[in-house]
Amino acid sequence: MARAIFSLEIKRSRWLLCYLLVIHSLMLGTVVSLPLTFGWKIMAAVLIIVSCIYYCRQYQWLKSVNAIVKIEHDSQGKWTLHHINGIQYSKIILTSSYVIPNLVILHFNGVLPWQYRSVVIVVDAVDSGLFRQLRVYCRNPKTFQR
After folding, report:
1. What pairs with residue 93 in β-bridges?
2. pLDDT for 16-56, tens place per residue?
3. Distance (Å, rounded) from C-alpha 91 to C-alpha 1?
4. 88-100 and 68-74 as β-strands: parallel, antiparallel, unpaired?
5. In this predicted model, what pLDDT tens digit does every residue of 109-122 receive, in sequence order?
6. What long-range pairs does 32-39 form, CB within 8 A, spacing at least 24?
7. Which of 69, 75, 76, 146 has CA 20 to 30 A from 46's CA?
8. 105/118 Cα distance (integer angstroms)
9. Does residue 70 contact residue 10 with C-beta atoms inside 8 Å?
10. pTM score > 0.85 for this model?
């Protein structure tokens, strides 16, 4: 059995909360300024508010059963995602990533095509040393070679 060589716990992020609130507020402002009938504006506003609540539950409040609270990487190159309700997705492959100084987005594929997962990690939600290690790992050119 492969043992975990990297483990990262994900907590709440104030930066992500601010981002979600600003983006959804801008979307609401845009919808209000569009030349639509009142009914369409209300429907679009409700959808935007539902979207904000969904993403805040998923990433900020960690209330969703799909909220990922821990990721692990083992010596065989496989990853394990730990959800808040105790469910684990094991032996998945990191297929791509997006890395900037304060944000890392990881894209995983499981054995089956519909087992696709994305994990958003913001610098203030994790340990800074482990976040740096993850950034270095994702920027390594050999990481995504097969």
Report:
1. 109
2. 889 999 999 999 999 999 998 999 999 999 999 999 998 88
3. 11
4. unpaired
5. 876 677 788 899 99
6. none
7. 69
8. 7
9. yes
10. no
